[in-house]
Structures are given as C-alpha cells and as structure tokens.
Design goal:
By secondary structure, this protein is an alpha+beta fold. 41% of the residues lie in helices and 20% in strands. A hairpin with a 2-residue loop joins strand 17 and strand 18. Helix 4 runs antiparallel to helix 5 and helix 6 crosses helix 13. It is elongated.
Length: 445
Amino acid sequence: MQCNSIEQEILFYLKPNTMLTLKFIRENTDEVIRRLAVKHFDGSVIITKIIELDDKRKAIQLQLDNNLAEQNRIAKKIGKLFSEGKSAEVNAAKAKSAELKEFSKNLSQELKEIEEGQTKLLLQVPNLPHESVPLGVSASDNVVVRSRGNIPKLHEEALPHWDLASKYNIIDFELGVKITGSGFPVYRGKGAKLQRALINFFLDYNTAAGYEEVEPPHMVNEESAFATGQLPDKDGQMYHATADGFYMIPTAEVPVTNIYRDVILHATMLPIKLTAYTPCFRREAGSYGKDVRGLNRLHQFDKVEIVQIQHPDRSYETLEEMVNHVEGLLNKLELPYRIVKLCGGDMSFTSALTYDFEVFSAAQHKWLEVSSVSNFESFQASRMMLRFKEEGDKKAQLAHTLNGSSLALPRIVAALLENNQTPHGIKIPKALQPYCGFDKIDLQQ
C-alpha cells in the first residue's frame, strides 16, 4: 500500500489520544475496546474487569468514608457522655468505635488488594493507536509513505555483508561467539573506525538540529523501565542483572526519557530535544534463520537516539519534523530508503503512531529496518508523571513524548557495505569520509 506524503497524513490527524485514565475508560468504553482491537488486543474482558474493580473500589471507599464519619461522631459522643458520668454508655460507644476501626482495617486491606489488581490489569493495556493507524496484522500490511534513491546494480561477484566483513577483516562474528556468544560481533580496523565515524556523524547531525547531547547510564532500574513501557511488556526481552534489579537498556529512549520522570516543567521549556549514543542490549528470544545472519539482528548493537518532550498540541507537528530529520540523514548516506507507516498489528505496546525507515540491502535483495520514529502521546508521561504547567495555571498536565532512531548502526553498516562494494573495494559516502579518515575500504589495511 502507498499514500502520498507524511504531510498529508499529519493534516488528517483528528486529535491526540487521551491518556488511558479510569475516567476516560469509563466514559469511552466502546471506543477504547474498538481502538485496542486495531492492535489486535482484545480489550473486552480486561476493560470490563477494570470497570468492575473500579465499582468495588468506589463502594469500599464510600464505606470507609462513612465509617470514618461515624467514628468521629462517636468520639465526640464519648466525650460528652464521659463528662455526664455515663460510664456504661461510654463503654458501649468505645466498643462500637473499636468495632468500626476493625471493620475499616479490613476494608482498607480489601481496598489495597483491589487497587493492586486494578493496576496490574491497567499495565496490561497497550497505548491506544491513533485513529489514522491502518488496519493490518503484520509488516506486510504496513503502508509505504514514500521511497527515495535508486537500487544499486552490483557486479556479478558481489557478496552479502557477512562475507564482505570476513574478506576485508572488518567484522569478526566468530570471535564474538568465542568471547560472548552469537549476536555479539567484534569490529576491527576500518570496521571499528566506520562504527565510530557513524556515531559521531549522527550525533553532530542531531546537535546541529538543536538536540542536546547527553550520555546516560547503560543500565536502568525497574522504575525507569516501567516508566517508558518496557515493563512489564518486554520483561523477557531485556537482560536483567537480578542481584541489583538493574536492566541493560534496549534503547537510549529509556534512560533519556527518564531524565524527566517526576518532573513538572514550565510550558516555555517545551520542546525539550535530546540525543544520545548508547550500546543497546536485546535478548531477541526466538530469533533464528537467515534473517538474523550477520548484522541483521544482534544482541548488542550501537544506536544514536533522538527524544523530544513536547506540548500535546504540537506533538504531531514534531513527529513530522523528526521523520524529516531522519530522512535527511539517509539522504546524506546516499542509501535507497522507504518510509512506512506501521499498521496496528505491527506496532509496539507503547506507541500511538509509528513510522519505520527501511534501507535496501542490494546483496540480500530486501529492505532492512534502520529506524522507528514514534509518538507515544501521554502514555509514557502518565507512567512517569512527566508534566508541565502553562503560565498562570495551577494544575499541571501531561506532556507528550516522542523518540526515533537516528540511527541504528548494524543494518546501516550492512547496507553501506553491500551497496557500495566494487571489485576494487568498498566506497565510503562523501558525508562520512571526513569522519572516517578514508574514502574506501580495501584489502590493503
């Protein structure tokens, strides 16, 4: 499928999603269930259960409030009876008060259990997809927004990147297996320099566009992983240091966005634009076969990320801006690419709307995903209590968060090696040459 432009898509957006509060769920139950179905999430049972628990919570809270009011009334009565010397009635009132206190204690425990159960259910509910998200089950149903660049025609003896890596001694996959395991390559010589060049090039490109560079930790605590939506959804996909309760980050999005967890910003500070390079760690459980060969799917890889915290009224304009920003990087790398709008079945748990960038791998004859640019609306902000205040407002409101890969290195490197190979070496794009210090990878290293 193909549509005309992202700009036209942005104009189509009806309104940002409202965060999934209990109030919103109760007032828009049918809409919530319908939109969750776009992500192939059956919300009928869980949403009904959430509402039922909320009814119980309200009823118990009412009982507790009534009990407290009755206890206060009895306390005043006891004082009066005591002053009047009515000891028998005082004792009866004290017994009644003790009975109410014990009843309230049991109600409080029941209320706590209900609230915990309700929270566990709410954590299982993904972000609502935007109304414009196309219906579909898998990547084959994604909508191609636009394509740019020419597919290169390779010489007859062209090789896939894993064979090029061995031929030019720039990436050693077997050595990575020895040191750690499959999915942990060792970059050597000009391969290592190319990695460093790409990272610096991406960071310089981002900072020139107004993003502040930060260097965050590569491990996060459980609160941070919960705040951006990795927990509990991706628990089994993250490397977990159980002794300390820390998680190896799957993307810089997690620590960078959490910089503003539990923070109230002033509206004039928005947008906040951050960029960071980090290694990323993903277990990729269940991945196997030809699609994971070489650099196609790794357990450790390098990535440069961009994150924005924005006013809800401007988050979709920002999404367009971020898409255009990543597109500019791919143009500078001279790689053929396409932008696809993800269907409901291919979206992440946390995203409201996502655009993927794919580059063409000439030796593998397929498209490789190298970036996702997403608007999470208030989903992450509501988890991390990331808020802002307008001038003169007493009440803070939730910000919107967005992020994108700018860019992930492994498949970029794969495409650069494959698409730029010649019988006499591998050419380096002009924009990268000042960062690499060489214009070609050849056998004379």
